[in-house]
Amino acid sequence: MPAKKTSSKRPVASPMARNNDNMGLFFQRVFAIMFGAVALTGISSYVTIMYGLPLLVGQHGFTALFYVAMFGGFGLSIWTQARIFSLKPEVGGLLLAVYSVLIGIVITPLVAGALMINPASLWQAFFLAAAMFGCMALFGYKTTKDLSFLGRFLFMGMIGLILVGVASIFWPLGSGFATIVSLIGVLVFALFTAYDMQFLKNVYKAGGDTTQRNQLAILGALHLYIAFIAMFQYILSLLNRR
């Protein structure tokens, strides 16, 4: 009696399942790059506090080095976002690293002030920002509601916050107004997190070769890094408002 033949064929994953797996790997790469940039910012700020704080803050306010780092970082961020798909992914990653170091220098006065007023507020602000970031990132990834309508309003809100932030360097804000600005800042960048997650998901689904998706990962990491650091700064300001 002939033996029964057993099938050697294995179940083949559907294209949708493979795409979901690949998207999961893509977002793992995005978050790895983003949190690497956050770590660089923390190291940069720590080194600046230990060895370079007098170079940023003098007797009469911020020094020229502070403004170079602040406006240089702002310009580098805009240029990188505009040119990311014409740069090699390695170059884009290097520019993100440089930007994160500059941001670490820029936030040093805020961090140093928090250390003087309430050192525990640093960890509180970090964990609150991380919790909000995680919730909004998950919402942006999972929601079926189109969030593209938020883009224009969030961009206008971000520009307004930047202008107020620059103005506050020269003309200090009142305590009440500063609190309102910080609350608005947290809200704007929390919504930006959800918006950017959905944007990245949709662009990834649109396709592209390996290089383009690596470039997209750098761009996504930069966007999410900006949102996270901004939320951290605004929350830290709220916790140390005097």
Give me some keywords for this one.
mainly alpha; two-stranded antiparallel sheet; 2% strand
Secondary structure tally: strands:
2
Strand content: under 5%
The number of domains is 1
Oligomerization: single chain
Q: What does the overall shape look like?
A: globular
Biggest sheet statistics: 2 strands, antiparallel
Count of individual helical segments? 9
Secondary-structure element sequence? HHEEHHHHHHH
* Mean pLDDT score: 86
Contiguous runs where pLDDT drops below 50 for at least 5 residues: 1-8, 10-16
Strand order in the largest sheet: 1-2
Query: What is the helix content?
Result: over 70%
Distance between the termini: 90 Å
Describe the 3D structure.
The protein has 242 residues and is an all-alpha fold. It has one domain. The protein contains nine helices and two strands, in the order H-H-E-E-H-H-H-H-H-H-H. It has a two-stranded antiparallel sheet with strand order 1-2. Strand 1 and strand 2 form a beta hairpin. Helix 6 runs parallel beside helix 8. The longest helix is centred in the first third of the chain and has 37 residues. The N terminus is likely disordered.
